[in-house]
Amino acid sequence: MIRNYFKIVIRNILRQKVFTFLNISGLAIGIAIASLIMLYVKFEWEYDKSYPNTDSIYRVIQRVPGKPFMGTEYFAVTQEPLGRTLKSEFPEIVNYATIGTWKNAAINNSKNMSFEENVLYATAPNFLQMFSIELMQGNTNTALSQLNTVILSENIAKKLFGSENPIGKTITVIETETWTVTGIYKSLPANSQFATYGLITSFETYASGLKNREQALSWKNNSWYNYVKVINGTNPEFINARMPNIVNKYLSDANADIKARELYLQPLKDIRLYNNAYFGMGENGDLKTMLILIAIAIVMLSIASINYMNLSTARASLRAREVGVRKVIGANKIQLIAQFMGDSVFLSITAGIFAIILDLFLLPSFNQLIGINFSSAALLQPSFLIGISVITLLIGLLSGAYPAFILSSFQPVKVIMGDNAKGKHAYLRYILVVTQFAASIALIACTFIILSQLNYIKNRDMGYNRENIVVVPLNNNVIIQLGPMKQDLSQNPSISDVTACSQTPINIVSATYVNIPGEAGETKVLSYSIDSDFNFLQTFNIPLVEGRNFSKNITTDSTNAVLINQSLANSLGLKNAINSTISINNNKYNIIGLIKDINIHSLHQKIEPLFVRLNKPYLQYLCVKTKSGNLPATIDFIKSVWDRYSGQKPFKYTFLDSDFNSLYKREERVAQIVSYSSALAIIIACLGLLGLVSFIVEQKRKEIGIRKVLGASVSDVVGTLSKQFLQWVLYANIIAIPVAYYLMASWLQDFAFRINISWWVFILSGGMALLIALITVSSQTIKAAFANPVKSIRYE
Amino acid sequence: MLRTNNLVKIYRTEEVETTALDNVSIEINEGEFVSIMGPSGCGKSTLMNILGMLDNPSGGEYHFLGKEVSKFNERQRAQIRKENIGFVFQSFNLIDELTIYENVELPLLYLKVSPSERKRKVQTVLEIMEIMHRRNHFPQQLSGGQQQRVAVARALVANPKLILADEPTGNLDSSHGDEVMKMLTFLNEGGTTVIMVTHSPTYAEYGNRVIHLFDGKVVTENFQESFRV
Ligand SMILES: Nc1ncnc2c1ncn2[C@@H]1O[C@H](COP(=O)(O)OP(=O)(O)OP(=O)(O)O)[C@@H](O)[C@H]1O
Ligand SMILES: [Mg+2]
């Protein structure tokens, strides 16, 4: 019996090749895309959750009330004594780790080859215990107990020492420190915030080299991370409630601003996705993006399953007669249900297998898109395979259930006498198609809106020039010789301006308080700051509204002159800013010029106060404005000058406009994922429509024949048939527009500068869907309309 | 009314080539009632389809109302067809999703007849065919004979000059068959030319002439009227 069913399954597949192909491929594409997305979502969701004690580990963060910076009042950095103090004050806290990071440290291995690696220093062995870092060689408790020892991750050990055993060997850090390798630890999973750090040394090793040790390790310095482990099941709110006492006790001599700060425990597992604390160790994930992705995965999967169900049920209804015959011969209901279920599940599993194969092909491009390196092994891991199997099974059973129960309950007489069972139950199908198209149209509309917002961001006048500017990170050697170096650079006619600055204008992160000295009531304004060299305004074409730029001929400019922007002048309430005096960190400055308000952050943020002053020690970037044309030669020239002054330091550079674009990496990523998905969604929806149309046209073959015999022209027939399908797409539009509008309006909320959603987006996306559907539908209806009617009415 | 000259129709499939019509030359005048008879597979339906311009011959000439139509394209044929010809089939070929009324109305829609005119015409034929009371029913709810009456009603609603009926009684019992034949005779008496394929010698007798086909060839033409004289 099973063989008989199986034969029928295979024969049906072969008999309806195109149909089966459409059916399987639609589902396979849907599952493939949804599963890739879920792979990524899972990665983000499980961020920092792989440690055995994840649930009882917290990071201490602080809130600075009323002083938002980069859009938040919460900061991840705290004081060095905090960790051990919390442990001694709170019995619930059983362990602490104080951590610092050092990115891109210059490391030389024993063969004197140079590397740039991220170093993490922590109160060991607390840190190793708290995060259960497993040493493959060396001893957790003692590995870092001596000064100037280091443990390496497995990967870094391989990178630095190849196949040799690194234990006991030394590495040189920033050419001065020598550290001995005392342990190797198992590399952390890529989705943990410490994964990008391959070397761990003790906090003491790091602190022993600090010039200003006492200040750095005091309650006044917020530049460390503190993690604590609590007794299992402790409610962090109990600890949070007692935090103000700590602040009062240890910061009793601090000023009111500092006393107003609040400390909180933030669960480790929330850091990646729910984080709102600035200056964190790792890159933040984004919950909103995750939700968008999950929504897309669900939409893709639903579109694909709807397809599958529609096509399967349509296909099954062709078998009404077979069912009738089987019943007459003696098949019972259970057998028939099993047969249809089996058929449907067989095909959906086939689709699932294709989906996995498709995923393997898509993985490299997907990795590129999201910037994570999943190996193909990730696709074959049990949880992933189980997930796909469950989904395929569900879709198979669900799509099998409908024909199984409906068809098997037909009365055989009716079916055999040709009582047309085909046309009934079609409403569900129409509703499903409408839903499918609504989702596709909404996705297309979202794509257009996201792309036009990105386009707007990239083309908006930020108030300064970012084209043709080469940015070179500086080091101490170069800063000392900045004058002669700038001189040398300006010899080249392709270089029009050179300046140095602490930060380029694209995203300014340092800020400090500014006030008007001697004023009663002391209005303090938090202002972003740039420390620069001469030529800053010229290089970036930042317009002066009033006053003058810095001048080399006026010696006081280097010590107490400042340029401020209009926002800062407004916030300080300065009507006549020029020649007024302001106080920055208790130093007085004379305002010599008022600069136009330029955007100094991504367009998520409003324009905020800014001042620019000359301040050599803090310069970090050399910015070279070049004339367009022959850029490679100009860069070679900059490198040759660099080599003259840098003392062997490697020459690195970026372009300001690409730095600028990388501010919108996340949006770019969302845009790409949404646009690919919407393209695929409409393709899948059209595959479904194609299948359904060909099915319905097949059913209506006779009707079409009769109509033609009665005088219908080809265009009459195409019109009659297509009208109905296109109606569905129109209904879909009605559903899609408000949904897309609502979603996009809330997405745009995150931008301080944003486009208005215009009606043409909806006309365009609806029109596109209609056009694509029209092409799909008419490819079938035209064929049917041209068919010779004699053939279709002949063998009724 | 129509005249064919050496009509040939050849069907080609992958394996075989069937000559369904082999040099058929016939002439049918206005007002005639012609029956076509012959064994199964002899080409009767093929001939009807060509006469009804549903299909083009592979060779030969076909003059319809003075025009050589055998090389006409689909559009031109459709135009002549809907203005002049009504069809009745063995398997009624009604559209299941449309009511009786709507089925009968269909040819008028394609002829772009005005709504009021349509209503009048449809009602008239439904009354003639005595199925007015079933006009809001669907085909599946009617007996075979009633369905065929609807099909006849549909064939004549546009007042065609020619009615082609391919085994109109084939699926009906004798009493229903008689009814349909009475209708066709009635129409013919009103001046409509009727060509009918039948297996029944009795029904063939309703015609004024029988054309016999065998293996795609015309065997004899039997002018009954001349016998009667
Ligand atoms: N579309 C087709 N393709 C191939 N052969 C065909 C086609 N239509 C008809 N034939 C063949 O042409 C011959 C004549 O067929 P036709 O339908 O005209 O016969 P008929 O006289 O109407 O038969 P019946 O009395 O059974 O209806 C037959 O041999 C048939 O098999
Ligand atoms: Mg026939």
Keywords:
heterodimer, A: 796 residues, alpha+beta, six-stranded mixed β-barrel, 29 helices, globular, B: 229 residues, alpha/beta, six-stranded mixed sheet, five-stranded antiparallel sheet, 8 helices, disordered C terminus, binds adenosine-5'-triphosphate, binds magnesium ion
How would you explain this protein's 3D organization?
The complex is a heterodimer of chains A (about 800) and B (about 230). Chain A has about 800 residues and is of the alpha+beta class. Helix content of chain A is about 50%, strand content about 15%. Chain A has 29 helices and 24 strands. In chain A, a hairpin with a 3-residue loop joins β8 and β9. In chain A, α2 runs antiparallel to α11 (about 285-315), α2 crosses α13 (about 335-370) and α2 (about 15-45) packs antiparallel against α25 (about 665-700). Chain A starts with a helix and ends with a helix. Mean pLDDT of chain A is about 85; it is low at about 415-425. The radius of gyration of chain B is 18 Å and the shape is globular. Chain B contains 8 helices and 11 strands. Chain B has helices at about 45-50, 75-85, 100-110, 115-130, 145-155, 175-190, 200-205, 225-229, and strands at about 1-10, 15-25, 25-30, 35, 60-65, 65-70, 85-90, 160-165, 195, 210-215, 215-225. With about 230 residues, chain B is of the alpha/beta class. Classes of the chains: A alpha+beta (about 800), B alpha/beta (about 230). The interface between A and B is medium-sized, with 23 and 24 residues. Bound molecules: adenosine-5'-triphosphate (ATP) and magnesium ion. Magnesium ion binds near residues 44, 45 and 166 of chain B.
